[in-house]
Design a protein that fits this description.
heterodimer; A: 426 residues; alpha+beta; Rossmann fold; Coagulation Factor XIII, Chain A, domain 1; 2 domains; 10 helices; 27% helix; B: 297 residues; mainly alpha; 13 helices
Chain lengths: 426, 297
């Protein structure tokens, strides 16, 4: 057991729903205290069943019964939808908050990076902030001094090192913040979604740096929504769903099952049941079933590159309402959203009756290369409520219809296609 | 159920960069909920002394940024209070000052008072001001109020220069008692830290503390012999008066610097005991609440 870097057993974290409330005033506690006895009396009269319901209602498990082990030198990814408990798990392992139940054992110096630039002070210069932030992240002064030049070079801000960071552009700010964090070298590194900073080239540099850390034999726990980053850095990945650890294994398998969301490839022209799919939203109106077709009978209505794609969406609404946005979006296997056909983009709201409605949505031409794509669904108002949101309802396969006649294509050709012409002038 | 944790056997590797060396002293952290009194955690605090140093350094560096008068503010505040007090209490009300010129009598008390009041306000609000740190990084939370208190010593040192100038002006030569001055400074710091620990931990959950603070420091000022002499208090009540630890501090300052014939005596003894109780209680209360800070702040 001691050769494990991280070892968790039954980690759980319960929040009382009121606990998340901000600015709780003393007055509230006093009134609570006054009303508590009468509440108990009332529940006694109403029967004990009610009382237990009340307790269950006011607490919620952010994570529940999480057990896993991570070996020394292993890089492990953590994925899951928003609210699945990823951040809570990292906060417990970073000792920021305590578990309600269970135990975790970490062997080695822990460094955690839940946010870049924590403790940066806008009035201080870049130089001062490197020292301050480094100390906050747990580096020793001598260690920071040794790495100082490396950090400045990595952030590409050497000219502005003695300028207060409040004068920095936001890009310079995050570059500096990440540069300090990237030079933290604990034996166990815990990283939340922090790579989504800076421009594309800097992100690439950050990923490279993370890869170096993992290759140097350090243990890394890495939360990200960037599936390609996870696949590049981590051999094993765990999937959290609703606060529970549902899958832990080979990254490629976990990522694909996460994106497929348990629903595997679905065939065209048959109603696909999405009523049980994992989703978020108020549910006042929700998707029940989907049916798709390319309208091309010759290839069995399968979607094809540059062809049309028609969706029929069965939506159940609990009242008569007008909805601003109903959308179907397609994502690749890395979770990158490629196409979003949203009625709000074309300014068309949708009137839903109480009960069942069928909405027809047609993509005129699908500029996607052949491959597997995940279908996501969204229903809601842009500024207001999110009624129903399914990140990944099922997968479809886009086939190639054109290659026989026009040329040869391979998967390396890119994700999307375009119409183009060639002419030569001499 | 409160959520608690026990930290066991955490030692930092001397050379974090060198894995082979670090492996020899593998620090191990155990995270679990538990109940009961944890140790004071002072050992861990010592391990984080560099962070404490950097936070103090930050507070000092940032304090007078983008002000025209800069560090002069550290002098202006007690100096003008001295003028106002001398005018209204010294001249108009004719408060007795034990035969010492009233301006220096009051300034000598305003110095530790300002140190205390400022440190108390800063430390009480410190956890909320550093919310980002608390919710994103682990370190012993005690570092935050302690750094807020200690950063105030710089202002104190600057304002002290004026006192030295005034002593020269009034030709007051301190006696050997001046050697005890550091002890009274420490007592003032311990008082503000002790009370600050209680209030900062309470402030995380009850924002009422913030509004109580202004009121509290005002009342406390009048309960402390700053504008008057503690000799106004009848002899038999003197020990009870010492329950206000700042009374002991202020009287101690006057005795050490201005050479008042009579030492603070029983009043000081009571003050010191009260401070020690408040401080130890504050550390325990703070450490019990510490683990909920990230969830509540």
């Amino acid at each position: 057991m001691s050769d494990m870097a991280i070892c968790c057993e039954g980690l759980s974290k319960r929040y009382r729903i009121g606990e998340r409330q901000r600015y709780k005033a003393l007055r509230d506690t006093l009134t609570d205290a006054i009303y508590a006895p009468t509440r108990r009396l009332r529940s006694m009269f109403n029967g004990s069943a009610n009382a237990t319901v009340a307790i269950a209602d006011s607490t919620f498990w952010a994570i529940k019964d999480i057990s896993f082990e991570v070996e020394h030198g292993e890089a492990v990814g953590i994925i899951g939808h928003n609210g699945a408990g990823k951040s809570t798990l990292l906060k417990i392992l970073s000792r920021i908050t305590k578990p309600s139940e269970g135990e975790a054992r970490i062997n080695g110096r822990v460094g955690s990076l839940l946010e870049v630039g924590t403790g940066f002070h806008p009035e201080l210069t870049g130089r001062d902030n490197i020292y301050l932030n480094g100390a906050i992240l747990g580096m020793k002064k001598a260690e920071i001094r040794r790495k100082f030049d490396e950090i400045v070079a990595f952030a590409e801000i050497d000219k502005f090192i003695d300028t207060p960071v409040k004068r920095y552009s936001s890009g310079m700010y995050v570059r500096l913040a990440f540069a300090v964090a990237a030079h933290l070298e604990p034996e166990v590194l815990i990283v939340d979604e922090v790579l989504a900073v800076g421009d594309a080239s800097f992100q690439k540099k950050c990923l490279g740096k993370m890869g170096d850390v993992a290759n140097k034999g350090r243990t890394v726990l890495f939360v990200s929504h960037n599936m390609s980053a996870i696949q590049r850095l981590c051999a094993r990945t765990m999937l959290l769903e609703g606060g529970r650890l549902t899958t832990y294994g080979n990254t490629a398998d976990v990522v694909s099952s996460y994106l497929a969301n348990g629903v595997s490839e679905a065939a065209p022209v048959s109603w696909i049941n999405v009523a049980q799919a994992s989703r978020s939203g108020t549910g006042e109106a929700r998707f029940l079933a989907v049916h798709y077709s390319s309208l091309n009978e010759a290839i069995g209505f399968r979607p094809y590159t540059n062809g049309p794609l028609e969706f029929s969406l069965t939506v159940e609404s609990d009242a008569l309402r007008s909805v601003e946005g109903i959308s179907v979006f397609l994502s690749d296997k890395y979770g990158t959203r490629l196409v979003n056909a949203d009625s709000a983009f074309i300014g068309r709201s949708v009137n839903l009756h109480k009960g069942l409605n069928v909405v027809l949505l047609k993509i005129k031409e699908l500029y996607l290369n052949p491959g597997m794509y995940a279908i996501g669904l969204w229903l809601g108002n842009n500024m207001g409520a999110n009624l129903d949101y399914i990140e990944s309802a099922f997968q479809i396969e886009v086939v190639n219809l054109e290659s026989e006649g026009f040329g040869i294509r391979s998967n390396e050709d890119g994700v999307v296609t375009c119409h183009f012409d060639i002419s030569v002038t001499n | 159920m409160t959520i608690q944790e026990q930290k066991i056997n955490r030692t930092l590797a001397d050379s974090p960069n060198d894995l082979s060396l670090a492996a020899a002293v593998v620090p191990s952290t155990i995270i679990r909920p538990s109940s009961g009194w944890a140790s004071l955690g002072l050992k861990e605090l010592w391990e984080y002394r560099e962070l404490l140093y950097f936070l103090i350094w930050r507070d000092i560096k940032v304090r007078y940024k983008q002000t025209v008068l800069g560090a002069a503010w550290a002098i202006i505040q007690p100096f003008f209070m001295m003028i106002v007090f001398s005018l209204f209490f010294g001249r108009l009300a004719g408060a007795p000052s034990d035969g010492i010129p009233y301006p220096i009598f009051v300034y000598c008390a305003l110095l530790p008072w300002q140190l205390f009041a400022h440190a108390l306000t800063e430390s009480s609000n410190s956890l909320i001001a550093n919310e980002r740190l608390i919710t994103k990084v682990y370190f012993p939370r005690l570092v935050i109020p302690i750094s807020a208190v200690l950063a105030g010593l710089v202002d104190f040192a600057i304002a002290f220069v004026i006192l030295v100038a005034m002593m020269a002006y009034y030709r007051i030569v301190p006696t050997l008692a001046v050697l005890t001055l550091p002890l009274f400074i420490i007592l003032a710091v311990m008082t503000s830290l002790g009370v600050g620990l209680w209030l900062s931990a309470l402030n995380v959950q009850y924002r009422d503390v913030r509004y109580t603070l202004t009121f509290l420091t005002q009342v406390w000022l009048f309960a402390t012999p700053v504008a008057y002499s503690s000799t106004l208090v009848p002899e038999r009540w003197r020990a009870i008066y010492g329950l206000n630890p700042m009374a002991g501090v202020v009287e101690g300052f006057r005795w050490a610097l201005l050479g008042k014939a009579q030492g603070p005596g029983i009043l000081l003894a009571v003050s010191v005991s009260v401070v020690i109780l408040i401080l130890i209680g504050g550390v325990y209360y703070f450490q019990r609440m510490e683990e909920t800070f990230a969830d509540l702040v």
